[in-house]
Every structure is written in structure tokens, then in C-alpha cells.
Design brief:
The complex is a heterodimer of chains A (118) and B (193). With 118 residues, chain A is mostly helical. Chain A folds into two domains: 41 residues, no CATH class; 45 residues, no CATH class. In chain A, 72% of the residues lie in helices and 0% in strands. Chain B has eleven helices and no strands. The longest helix of chain B has 23 residues. Chain B is globular, with a radius of gyration of 19 Å. The chains are: A mainly alpha (118), B mainly alpha (193).
Chain lengths: 118, 193
């Protein structure tokens, strides 16, 4: 491609400037329409309050049913831990009834051989 | 509008609008609409359609205001993309490209009719030459010389780097000069230079 001269560059820049001048100026009517849209969006913002962003803990509380349910769940969990840790006397009575005596199962291999050897 | 408001960025004004400040919307409308309108007019070649696109683009700006993240893009860059997409949709739906012949002539405000006609002829010749350029070159040249964007901003819009933008603009301008060279006498350039 041939080299361009300063005159060529000047010619092009002048033509760009003419094109920019030829851009239509926005009409008063258009500016008013745009501001009416802005007013409408502002009015919608005023009548429809935005929902605040919510944290995970708040969403979790909603899923399980709020604080009353949450405290009920906590109480049930504590009760479950207590039941698991406490000796279930009723269950001991039931196993004795079924097997007659208490059954001892050796946990170590050496205990098992000792039992076999008498 | 106060002096302090004049130095607010577009993003600052958008945040103020989002907070309910109507005067921020007025300032943004006055700042941005001429540029939006110019871009739409150059793409569509029709004043009424360009006004519709400008109104739609600004409406989208108002609606996105509460979610605007100034770290993600400049307002003008975002608007350029919105206008380009709206214009492309219109051109596609109507099954036309940019119709050079349909571009209206500007109002006769120049000192003389002869000069106005010559300016118009030059502008038309340049529009035609721009349409004949490869798309990326035409976009880079248009953004630099008609939209008055900086090279870094053009790189952001075109999703490329500044060096590529410089190369696209340089090649585009050389092509334009070559295309206009054969019409210098017809366009009255030889009288001027």
C-alpha cells in the first residue's frame, strides 16, 4: 500500500470532523421522553421497595420455620444426646428376658483361646 | 447544576440516580444522549429510528442503575454496546445493512449551499468508504475518529489490546485515504490542498 502524505491525513481528519458536525442534535422531544422514562423508573423504585440482601443464616431460619422451630430443634437434639449417653435400663431388662443370662463376648483373640482351653 | 456536580463521573451520577436523585438523570441525559444518538444515526441512517434507539438505550441505563458496578465497565462503553446491539437487531429484522442512500442530509446551516453540498458529499464518500473496510478496521476507525474514544477504551469495547487497536486504525486510515484518492477532484479536495 502506498505511503500517505500529510495532506492525505489532513483531508481525512477534516472529513471526519465534517461527519461529526453532521451528527443530528437530539431533539427537545427526545430529551423529554428520556427524562419521562427516568421519572417512571424512579417512581417504580419508590413504590416497589427493594428486598434487602439476606444472609445464609436468615435463609436457613426461614427454611426450618423461624426461631420457634429452631429452639424446638435444639431441645430435641439435647434430649437425643442425653438418651444416647444414659444407660437404657428398660432395654437391659428386655435383653435379659430374651437370653436368660447376660452374654459376655470376648473382645480380644487371647481371651477367646483362654476360654476354649478352659 | 452545581460546580461540584460537573466533575462527577457518569458512574457517580448513575449511583446518585439510583438513590433517587432526578437531577443526576438530567445531567446524564444531557451528557450521553448526543453521543448515543450520533452512534445510532451513523448505524441506522435514519433520524426517527436513531431517536427510538437512543431512548431505549437510556431506558436500559436507568433500569440497570441499582445494579451498576463501576469496576466492571465504563458507562459509555456499556452504552456503546447496547446501542450497537439495538441497531444491529433493527437492521437484521428489516433485512438491510447500513443504507447509505437513506442517510438524511444535515440541515442547511453552513455558510453557503455549495459548501454544504461539498461537506455532505465528502461525509457521504467517507461513510461509503468506511462501509467497504473490513469490519474490525471500520469499527476501530469509527470509535477513534467519530466516537472520540481513547485507544484503551476501544480495546475494551473490541475485546483486544491497545497495540492491535493502533494497527487496525492505521490500516483502516490508509485504506480510506486510498479509496478517497480517486475522488479528490469530485469532492473538492484539490482546491483546498
Amino acid at each position: 500500500m502506498k505511503m500517505t502524505t500529510d495532506n492525505d491525513e489532513k483531508m481525512l481528519n477534516e472529513t471526519f470532523a465534517q461527519m461529526r458536525v453532521a451528527d443530528p442534535v437530539p431533539s427537545e422531544d427526545l430529551m423529554n421522553r428520556i427524562m419521562l422514562d427516568a421519572d417512571m423508573v424512579l417512581a417504580e423504585g419508590a413504590t416497589v421497595p427493594q428486598r434487602p440482601k439476606r444472609g445464609l443464616s436468615a435463609m436457613f431460619r426461614d427454611v426450618i420455620g423461624g426461631w420457634p422451630t429452631f429452639s424446638g430443634l435444639a431441645a430435641a437434639t439435647v434430649a437425643g444426646v442425653w438418651i444416647g449417653a444414659a444407660q437404657p435400663a428398660a432395654l437391659t431388662d428386655l435383653s435379659t428376658g430374651l437370653w436368660g443370662d447376660t452374654i459376655e463376648v470376648p473382645l480380644l483373640e487371647s481371651d477367646l483361646f483362654a476360654a476354649l482351653e478352659g | 447544576m452545581t460546580d461540584s456536580a460537573k466533575i462527577l463521573t457518569d458512574a457517580d451520577l448513575l449511583a446518585a440516580f439510583s438513590g433517587g436523585d432526578r437531577s443526576a438523570a438530567l445531567e446524564l441525559t444531557q451528557r450521553l444522549t448526543p453521543r448515543v444518538m450520533g452512534q445510532a444515526y451513523r448505524m441506522l441512517g435514519n433520524r426517527a429510528e436513531a431517536e427510538d434507539v437512543a431512548q431505549e438505550a437510556m431506558l436500559r441505563l436507568w433500569k440497570i442503575a441499582p445494579e451498576w458496578d463501576p469496576d466492571r465497565a465504563k458507562v459509555t462503553t456499556w452504552l456503546y454496546r447496547v446501542v450497537a446491539n439495538l441497531c444491529t437487531d433493527r437492521l437484521r429484522k428489516s433485512g438491510r445493512g447500513v443504507d447509505i442512500d437513506s442517510i438524511e442530509e444535515p440541515a442547511d446551516t453552513a455558510p453557503s449551499v455549495a459548501e454544504t453540498l461539498q461537506d455532505t458529499a465528502r461525509a457521504q464518500a467517507l461513510r461509503t468508504a468506511l462501509c467497504d473496510l473490513p469490519e474490525r478496521q471500520a469499527e476501530a476507525v469509527t470509535l477513534r475518529h467519530l466516537e472520540d474514544r481513547s485507544n484503551p477504551e476501544i480495546a475494551e469495547i473490541m475485546k483486544t489490546n491497545v497495540r492491535t487497536v493502533e494497527s487496525l486504525i492505521a490500516r483502516g486510515k490508509r485504506s480510506l485515504i486510498a479509496r478517497l484518492a480517486g475522488r479528490k477532484a469530485e469532492l473538492g479536495y484539490e482546491d483546498d490542498h
